[in-house]
Amino acid sequence: MEKEIYISPPLTQLIFRHLASYSVINDSRQFVHLYQAIELLRVVIGEKKIEEHYKKEYVNLNNTLISFGKIVYHINHYFDLLKDTDYKNSNVWKETYRNFLNALSQMPVIHTRIIHFFGFLLDQTPLKNRTIPSDYLAQASKDLISFETEQDMEKKSLNYRKQHFEQELQKLEEGEEKKENDN
Amino acid sequence: MLIRQVIKTKLKQNLNREKSGDQISSFLSFFDIVNLLSLKKKLDIPEKLKVIQAWQSLYDFDLNKILNSLKENEKMETFNKNFKQLYAEDYDIQISKKILLIFKKKYEKILHIYLNEEKIILPSEAPKNIQGDIAYLD
Fold first, then answer.
1. Taking the domains of chain A in order of start, what are their residue ranges?
2. CA A175 vs CA A163, A165, A170, B68: distances in Å
3. Alpha-carbon distance B59 to B64, whole Å?
4. Which of A23, A98, A119 sits opposite B63 (nearest CB)?
């Protein structure tokens, strides 16, 4: 059996962090993290081994990875300029949104090859038999965007103000009661 | 072990995402899960090409045509509202969405079987209530 490639603990942590985000985030940013994890694994395993395995397909694989990188760039660009409530209100006027849609339309075409390459890379390492620490998953979930509509947010804000007002009123009433009791 | 954990986590998140009403992007993440399953179980996905075509047709709108149809001084909000309505009512878009939904329905069952460590049922052995869906895709 072929010897598995050693990965240092800091690099393992970094890969697991990206894989945690890849698992948890589902709004297309997962591909950004998949790309990062693949790039890290690729460095660890080395081009020689990949080339030996893929042989004639190696050039095609590289082209697929370049396309994947471009898709990831457009996803990143779109989300970098996005505020939470904008997601549902995104419109085709914005070039970043059009590029994002175009990138998404291309994703399934290369996806199978990317996943198989990811599987190949994982198989060379001991990571395949490990699991992502649960606290990494919990931390990754903090990056989830809350896809609330403006109406939901207004409702939330009104409720918050109402609660705050009621608490203040209660404090005042309690204060008055105390004064009366003291007198 | 790792891939299985990723599939399981993704599926859970995918259900949450679907609940939030984002059907389209939840489909892309579902496709992601199915490909991971196919990697893990060496599962063939015969509908893949059809699904990719359906997915691409969702984004196959002619932007120049849309911009040309823009009325002078039309407000962006009005344009977007009209665009979203036209998009939602488009026949090809509706068909594409239907194909994606049938695909999802079929593989959701297979995924749950996998995660419950039961034997994966081949399409020909699938329960009768989903065989029609498979035939539609094939």
1. 9-146, 148-183
2. 18, 15, 8, 66
3. 14
4. A98
Taking CB atoms and an 8 Å limit, are B20 and A147 in contact across chains? yes
CA-CA distance, B119 to B125, in Å (whole number)? 11
Q: Which tokens go with A127?
A: 């990571």
Q: Please, which residues have CB within 8 angstroms of residue B128's CB and are 6 or more apart in sequence?
A: none
Task: Name the nearest CA neighbour of A18 among A32, A2, A3.
Answer: A32
Q: Quick one: tokens of A17?
A: 């962090």
Interface test with B, best of A4, A23, A85, A114 (most B CBs within 10 A): A23
Closest CA to A36 of A24, A21, A47, A57: A21
B96-110 pLDDT, tens per residue?
889 998 998 888 888
Of the candidates A19, A98, A101, the beta carbon closest to that of B6 is on: A19
B2 reaches A (C-beta below 8 A) = yes
Give ipTM to 2 decimals: 0.77
Q: Where are the domains of chain B?
A: 2-137
Q: How confident is the model at residue A56 (pLDDT cuts 50, 70, 90)?
A: very high
Q: What is the mean pLDDT of residues A88-94?
A: 68
Cβ count within 10 A of residue A94? 15
Matching residue, tokens 């909000």? B77
pLDDT (tens digit, 9 = 90+) per residue, B12-41?
A: 888 777 776 667 778 888 899 999 999 988
- Dist. CA A48–CA A64, nearest whole Å: 18
CB-based contact, B135 to chain A, within 8 Å:
no
Residues whose CB falls within 8 Å of the CB of residue A85, separated by 6 or more in sequence, listed in order: A148, A149, A150, A153
pTM over 0.80: no
Which of A86-90, B82-86, B127-131 has the least mean pLDDT?
B127-131
